[in-house]
Amino acid sequence: MKTWSWSLIPVLSLVMITHAFGENRRPEAQEAPQANLIEKVEVEPGKSAPIPGHIQLIQGYKHEPLQGIDSRVGRISRNDGFTINYEQGRVPKENEQFRLGGDFSNAAQHVKKTEGAWYREQTVQGTPMQIAMTKEKLLVVTFPESGINFTTKIEKDTDLAEVLLMLLTFDASRA
Asked: Rounded to whole angstroms, how far apart are CA atoms 8 and 75?
């Protein structure tokens, strides 16, 4: 007669859980709430949250800061629905080996060559700026020293002009 070893109980438990919930899913993953990942930031009445880099908005645009999990996020939008999203994270030091989830990742440089229509770099008022456009007309503007990416879907040439006119006012000393 064979006896079960106590060391097999955790293995058998894992097999039963895997069988009950499927191979690639964990039980707790099914119940994780998704709705509250991003919410509006509360700002003192009569005051507005500053726009990163104190960008000068064109008439008809408004800034809406949002609350990210581990980075500063928000959007700049027009009444017709055109929206520029941004995410700003901590810029890790060059020799730093440990990175955090909200750390900055250069979105303009990460556009795959097969997906990119064009990529340009420029220094504006002493601040490096990188711009990429995908073949699907997603514009990505990055200020790497400030750890911020701006993204928007370009539908019209005037959208592109307005985005660039606003983002060229970005002041890295006030980011």
From this structure: 53
Condensed to tens digits (0 to 9), the pLDDT of residues 13-61 reads: 433 433 444 444 433 434 434 333 334 445 454 456 789 999 999 999 9
Distance, in Å, from the CA atom of 138 to the CA atom of 43, rounded to the nearest integer, reads 30
- Find the angle CA(121)-CA(122)-CA(123) to the nearest 5 degrees: 140
Tell me the sheet residues that pair with 153: 138
Tell the residue number behind the tokens 């000393």, with chain if given: 173
Check residue 42 and report its DSSP letter. P
145, exposed or middle or buried, with CB in 10 Å at 0-12, 13-18, 19+?
middle
pLDDT in tens, 121-156: 999 989 999 999 999 999 999 999 998 999 999 999
